[in-house]
Amino acid sequence: MKRVSVTIKEIAKALDVSKSTVSRALRDSSEISSETRRKVMELAEKLNYYPNPIAISLLKNRTQTIGVIVPDIANRFYSSAIGGVEDIAYSRGYHTMIYQSHELLERELSASRHIASRRVDGLVVAISSQSENIDHFVALQEQGIPVVFFDRVSDAMQTHKVRVDDYKGAFEATEHLIQRGCRRIAHIAGPEKVSITRFRLEGYKDALRKHGIAFQEEWVRHSEITQAGGTERTYQLMALRERPDAIFGASDRITMGVHWALRQLGYKMPDDVAVIGFCDLAMSSLLDPPVSSVTQPSFEMGQQATSLLLDLIESKSTPAEYETRVLRSNLVINKSSLREIVGS
Amino acid sequence: MKRVSVTIKEIAKALDVSKSTVSRALRDSSEISSETRRKVMELAEKLNYYPNPIAISLLKNRTQTIGVIVPDIANRFYSSAIGGVEDIAYSRGYHTMIYQSHELLERELSASRHIASRRVDGLVVAISSQSENIDHFVALQEQGIPVVFFDRVSDAMQTHKVRVDDYKGAFEATEHLIQRGCRRIAHIAGPEKVSITRFRLEGYKDALRKHGIAFQEEWVRHSEITQAGGTERTYQLMALRERPDAIFGASDRITMGVHWALRQLGYKMPDDVAVIGFCDLAMSSLLDPPVSSVTQPSFEMGQQATSLLLDLIESKSTPAEYETRVLRSNLVINKSSLREIVGS
DNA sequence: CTGAAAGCGCTTACAG
DNA sequence: CTGAAAGCGCTTACAG
């Protein structure tokens, strides 16, 4: 199909002035007669003229568009973060292009290539769990396209980062379970290479240590961020000779799997097994029993990452130093972890 | 920050040939000596040269990018459909830009404007519930940017459409409830103006009629596609003097609200109230009891809409006639509607 | 206040 | 096989 649009040239010809004059009139330059401006504006309006942003991009080498890469847009944590990105981008006059990596390095590479070649002005990313190597993001940065990380960050690159206090969130969740009388607390962690997995695991371990509970390797299982992963690990855990009396899941998907598996197996929550998750469980209240969870300010993370990014884009120079913002998580207690406290 | 990239000009200068020659060598034109081609390719490789797609877009008036507008990417139905869009687009060499309307006409207008001005090659849309007027899509089409509708379609515009057999899905769901002995079947429908709402409502009514059950206005409630909407309508329905013995929800979000409200109110599913939803409830099995539902091939809808769109984009002329594809929905029975059948 | 000219990065008839 | 030139739609010093 053929595309039709009005150009500056046609307006110039119709009004018998030069393209330069039309351009100036449209951009409201000061050095133009109000009479000319009026005529140009009127005709532009009438012809429904819009400047071709592609031409402007070619000229300015700027597109007023930023990219976002997340593992999976269907994940509420990420879709909410994208909401935050759009919020800030929109209000500062930028558009947003959304990419999903599906946790695949290959897709992340393809998105990076698209971003580089389409001259997107900057990028907000939560790194795919499969991406141990992040040279593609370093390359973007060197090419002058700033990159800001959120949620899943990496030490392998100097830039702004926004994350949640995973360590503390995990520590508090674990301590809460201990306070409710649990002693055999299992942790279904995320993929091993991911930054947040390590932070959460540390928080879990340190809470055990603080309360004099021995850490047991077999009670920690790594899993993909899927319901199936949570289910399978729960089966493994409950099959152990010494079975856990609590399970702390590293994400909402995983925790949904835990919940499902425990129900299948006929365990009561919280009495047989107390359960707590990690993420913003909007749907947590739908489950029976409703699930306790460490909630994260996902929308705000998107906002902050974007605002840091736009600052980078709009500043002429590389900042003296990069910033890592650590936001607070929040412990929301529900029935799934609310055991009767027995004894001491 | 400043952007650096290699251009054709620099390659030409380094090799002491013309830009034309470099361009031809890169595009592997036939009229070029293999020696020159080799030299150019080598240097391009070494300098990490990529053609500037913005320049090419300006030239060809094509961007190899399509847009998708959905009400809400966090909704599984839409995120899955987007997966289908990406699948086809990717395999045919196109990129995808995702927009959310958040069910707001204003956001839909802003996305349409961006699409028009960025010269996106085409658009796949599920119309926002707030958009009674779709002139903005007609305008895109007239401007030469083809638009294909899926899920939420409109009669106000001639184009390809892909939808599910909502009428039949609703008919079967309602009939199933009747067969399980329900007689006072309520329907929480979607927003009034939306096409699928009407089709589903018709299916519901016709199933009642077929089985000689009188239709009652007060048992149909319109709601937004939210959990809160489903909850509130359920309260209203259960407060009626003659309360329903079954509720058929028009979407998964709504049905989640129904489920929650019934649990809060202490009704047993399916014995007090049988429940059935409409959408691909991946999470349906997580609820207790698991929810029956009319499932839709969302991924496939995205694929088909995109493949129709790309055909439009790549054909030179307007097609003789537009096509409306109606896909099959599927009834998945779970405990929430599985009542004991009493008597005949 | 207005216009002619150059240029953003590329492609492609048109000559040779 | 190669180069010079025009052009995609726009902006902006540079002259006047």
UniProtKB/TrEMBL annotation, chains A, B:
Domain HTH lacI-type: 6-60
PROSITE patterns referenced in this protein's UniProt entry, alphabetically: HTH_LACI_2 (PS50932)
Keywords noted in UniProt: DNA-binding, Transcription, Transcription regulation
One Pfam family linked to the record: LacI
MF annotations from Gene Ontology: DNA binding
Protein name according to UniProt: LacI family DNA-binding transcriptional regulator
Organism of derivation: Dyadobacter sandarakinus
